[in-house]
Amino acid sequence: MVGGGPAGSVTAALLAERGRRVLLLDKARFPRHKACSDYVNPFGARILADLGLDAELAALGAHRMEAMLIHAPGGQRFLADFGAAAPGARVLGLTRYRLDVLLLDRARAAGVEVCEGAHVRDVIVETRGARGVVATIDGSRELLRAPLIIGADGRHGVVARALGIGCSPPWPRHTGLAAHYRGIGGLDRWGEMHVGRGGYAGLAPLEEGLTNVAFVSASQAVMARPGSLEAYFVAGLEGIPAVAEKLAGAERIGAIRGVGPMAHGTRRAAGDGFLLVGDSASFLDPFTGQGIAEALQGALLAAPIADAALRAGDLSARALAPYRAARRRAFRAKHQVAWLVQAFIATPPLMDYATARLDRRPESSQTLAGVLGGLYAAHRALTPAFLARLLRP
Ligand SMILES: Cc1cc2nc3c(=O)[nH]c(=O)nc-3n(C[C@H](O)[C@H](O)[C@H](O)COP(=O)(O)OP(=O)(O)OC[C@H]3O[C@@H](n4cnc5c(N)ncnc54)[C@H](O)[C@@H]3O)c2cc1C
Fold first, then answer.
1. Which of 10, 37, 177 to mutate to test the pocket of ligand 1 (most atoms within 8 A of CB)?
2. How do 190-195 and 200-205 pair as beta strands?
3. pLDDT band at residue 315, thresholds of 50, 70 and 90?
């Protein structure tokens, strides 16, 4: 397993629980911070509950929210109320510093051998496909062989790159910057998304009174900035008046972490001797807040198929093809909704128009909240009837 984020830790744990020997390599040492808005959507929160982690999440102080308040550039807003879409549905706000180490410890407890500080540099490919990795561990180069290589190494990861199957989409090319703040009030029951004209900001309440503040904008604008990254981040947030108001008097804690361009794809998520889970397979943009949930769901899809292939001793692309099919069924419509949402964000008048209608049309806003939260089948937000109801004057 390459990578010990949510995708890698959970896939590894599920395989170990099925009796498989798993070695997980991560270049980081945990706990570690990660550029993220630290928000687990209701579907992801349900998976974490099903994994038996509710008590630990509560003990870590995970903030439970019912909704996301979405603001359009023109001041219109609507509440994506997950609790109304499915009673009891909650979003979790918890720093990745805490969440990821919880999941990694769970993998260890399941019997996974975890090797931190192990930087995978390349994949060993032989005639029958991926057969191992080359890693730097404690300064020395190691060749590690395994019947199955699982890439869970995030966007633009080394596994997809070494196998030559990365194919990032030309649009959107966004960079995400995120930091933690203390002293932001008025965010108990919900987090907030604010779409501005030069980017969008997200605010998510977390454990111990912290709030995650993120700003996402065009990667080109970030690269062409005249001053420091910090000045760019602050100016971006101040450029959205409602966000500037929330930040007045708040204090930033720690560094600003950034990633860009964020969108990443691959031509196939499985092939001879390998599988890709989580961001290493694909990631579009954090606006819909489904990255962690998708990493967890990908783990649930991958583990039984990888286990069956390992038991049969057949790690061919054909034996692993059910994983590709399962991902298509699970994610295709979700990704189409995410693309559609990006189109609205990129077109301020359309975003203003749709947000005003969502605010007035509880049935439409409930459907969209259910879809964005992973609580309803995503195709419900793609039907002509839904779009006509949403967009009629
Ligand atoms: C700015 C921003 C905000 C976001 N906000 C949200 C949000 O609020 N909610 C949400 O659900 N999603 C959000 N996401 C997306 C979310 O962060 C990802 O979808 C999620 O982290 C995917 O998990 P993963 O396990 O696939 O990958 P990651 O969490 O990226 O984990 C990959 C792991 O692989 C390790 N690794 C990488 N390369 C190597 C290597 N060569 N050798 C060894 N180890 C390696 C890394 O150290 C890391 O630990 C956001 C993303 C960004 C960029």
1. 37
2. antiparallel
3. very high
Residue 152 has pLDDT above 90, yes or no: yes
Kind of pairing, strands 23-26 and 113-116?
parallel
Confidence of residue 168 (pLDDT cuts 50, 70, 90): confident
Q: How far apart are CA 295 and CA 51, in angstroms?
A: 14
> Is any ligand 1 atom within 6 A of the Cβ of residue 13?
no
Identify the bridge partners of residue 2 per DSSP, sorted by sequence position.
Answer: 25, 151
CA-closest residue to ligand 1 atom 16:
291
User: What b/e sequence results for 76-92 when a residue is b if at least 16 CB atoms lie within 10 Å of its CB, and e otherwise?
Assistant: bbbbbbbbbbbeebbbb
279 CB less than 6 Å from ligand 1? Answer: yes
For residue 7 and ligand 1, the question of a CB distance below 6 A is answered with yes
Q: Is the CB of 36 under 6 A from ligand 1?
A: yes
Ligand 1 contact, 39 CB (< 6 A): yes
Region 127-134: what's the mean pLDDT?
A: 95
pLDDT band at 42 (very low <50, low <70, confident <90, very high): very high
Q: What is the pLDDT of residue 245?
A: 96
Candidate from 47, 137, 279, 327 with most ligand 1 atoms within 8 A of CB, to mutate: 279
Domains and CATH numbers, the chain: 6-61+88-169+263-337 (3.50.50.60), 174-258 (3.30.9.100), 347-391 (no CATH)
